[in-house]
Amino acid sequence: MIIADYHTHTHFSSDSKTHPEAQIQSAVKKGLSYLCFTDHEDMDYCFPDEFQLDIPAYTSYMENLRNIYEKQIQIGIGIEIGLQPHLSKRLSDFVSTYPFDFIIGSSHVVQHMDPYFPEFWNGRSEKESILSYYEDTLENIKRFDCFDVYGHIDYIIRYRPDKTKPYNYTDYADILDEILKTLIQKGKGIECNTAGFKYGLSQPNPERALLTRYKELGGEILTIGSDAHEPAHIAYDFEKLPSLLKTCGFDYYTIFHNRNPEFLSL
Ligand SMILES: [Zn+2]
Ligand SMILES: [Zn+2]
């Protein structure tokens, strides 16, 4: 059984209305031993004022909850930062203001557009759009050091306009290999994000082929997260993961305390 959810949101993120305590109570009820909050900071998002995290308010609130619930569950205080190449200095300074347990770096915005919105896909082929997303991801990995794992690497798949057409991993294998090799070389990891199941992909993000390739290339650091924005989604479909991840070659998954990885058996 997976006992750690390392990607969750609360009302400190502008796309969630959930009280942090409701997330904790859901995690305890579902038998988790570790829960890490990773609320959003997306500097320079497509719409101003969205996804801006008040770090002092957030961290002092979470520290208080961590103390209240310490006998029931271990609470990690993390953050999910939206990486864009031009933000490397600003974001590194921003996250260094607090000793986070864990930092997810994610690509949510490419050239000022979020693939969530249809405009991202207009005026070019699907393959070109997806490639531009992966090229930007690679650039972020090269420029940033202030993160522990890259979030939902193939996030872009969730928003393909025509999901009746297959997504072929092999069309992007070269750049994905470079992404994975660069992460491994820098001592960074990836996550297995089960929101993919919630979006009807029948796969987590990233999908099995990419998880398998990461392991083949020597990748060891793999956190697991539901990306829950509400209590019902804590540990979403985690029961599917032990067998899925073992077929990809993994025996362990990872949690972080004070930015240091620890490994738990699958
Ligand atoms: Zn994300
Ligand atoms: Zn998230």
Helix/strand layout:
Layout: E1 4-8, H1 20-29, E2 34-41, H2 55-68, E3 74-82, H3 88-95, E4 102-106, H4 126-143, E5 149-150, H5 173-185, E6 189-193, H6 195-198, H7 208-216, E7 222-225, H8 241-247, E8 252-257, E9 260-265
Parallel strand pairs: 1-2, 2-3, 3-4, 4-5, 5-6, 6-7
Antiparallel strand pairs: 8-9
Helix pairs in contact: 4-5
Bound molecules: zinc ion (2 copies).
Work out the helix count.
Answer: 8
Category by helix and strand content: alpha/beta
Termini separation comes to: 7 Å
Helix proportion of residues, in percent? 25-40%
CATH class type: Alpha Beta
Shape: globular
Name of the CATH homologous superfamily: Metal-dependent hydrolases
What does this structure look like?
By secondary structure, the protein is an alpha/beta fold. The protein has one domain: TIM Barrel. Helices cover 31% and strands 19% of the residues. It contains 8 helices and 9 strands. The chain has a 7-stranded parallel beta sheet. Strand 5, helix 5 and strand 6 form a beta-alpha-beta unit. Helix 4 packs parallel to helix 5. It starts with a strand and ends with a strand. It binds zinc ion (ZN) (2 copies). The site of one zinc ion (ZN) has 5 residues, from loops. One zinc ion binds next to loops.
Question: Can you give me a brief rundown of this structure?
Answer:
This protein is an alpha/beta fold. Helices cover 31% and strands 19% of the residues.
